Amino acid sequence: MGQRSPDVPGAGRDPFFDNAKLLAMVLVVAGHAWQPLKDSHAVWSAYLFLYMFHMPLFIVISGYFSRSFVLKPEQGKRLITGVAVPYLLFETAYTLYGNAVDGRHNDLSLLSPWYLTWFLAALFVWRLTAPLWRAMRWWVAVGLAFAVSLVGAATSVSGVLNLDRVLQFLPFFVIGLVLRPEHWQLLRARWVRIASVPVLLAGAAFAYWAKGRMTAQWAMHNHSWGELHVSWPVGVAMVLGTTLCSLVLSVAFLALVPRRRTWFTALGAGTLCAYLLHGFFVRTAAWKGWFDAAFWHTPAGELAVTVFGVALALALTSPPVRRFFRPVMEPRMDWAFRMPLVPRPKTGKEAEEAPVPASAGSRPAGG
User: Fold this and answer.
1) How far apart are CA 119 and CA 27, in angstroms?
2) How close are the terminal C-alpha atoms of the chain, in Å?
């Protein structure tokens, strides 16, 4: 969310990725706004459909933009200021806010992400491991990530840093790491764009059929299959099946994303801001029972809540909101880091006496 391309220093933002992130963020906010209305068959189905691919999509993109991460000093600084510090601030803010507004009496535990802050904790862990995955052949890295995902789904490890999600969503991050620019160009093929429409429609139809036949927890990857009361063969099949469905739906969604600059492209730079802020609005609405009235559980009310979610996402990604919250979303914190040393230009005498490395083209004496 809000990453700059690390491949070419100073390179401009690719409108395709900003468009994709903005549209996916709209789905995230709308999905969270629907939570109080899931008694409706249509809303529950739409909720499952969105959860099958909107976070996997973000995670694949996050992996792609982590390809050059090798923990250089500047990269380490960005990881701390752009991921760790916002996590600490918003984990604290959400805990205190929930206690004040909903009387939750939750302890402040920075090792147990609450609500949507889990993504920042997971991203911090994933990005630290990026050099290890990049050192492997792509098929080894992806295969091992799937094995780790199954281990995460087989055991209950949700206590610290939401490790269940860290492990179960890992394949999407690793797949993003091994993608290359030419892979994204495949999405431009006409047949891919045409095929994406029936794929998405089939996904929506399956979600409607699944009501009463499966739990949406399978799409959230935050429970072990023991907690979902299924045997290990069923658990393995469900984890692999939902992961494959998430990848297919993500590809279909991306194939329809505009590649040119649009009126909403610039808003794609503010997806982290919208992600971290929208929870205060939707959780307050749920805690205060604002959507308990019968009207909101009618088709007109459900449509109104959807419009609210879309408008909220667009508002929170707007430049004025981003500028206002930049000190907490992207703190500079230069005071906490050693600035890179700039080599002092050598004087004439020092330049003459400086040793010339063999790789510079001079042949060692006696060679």
Assistant:
1) 16
2) 54
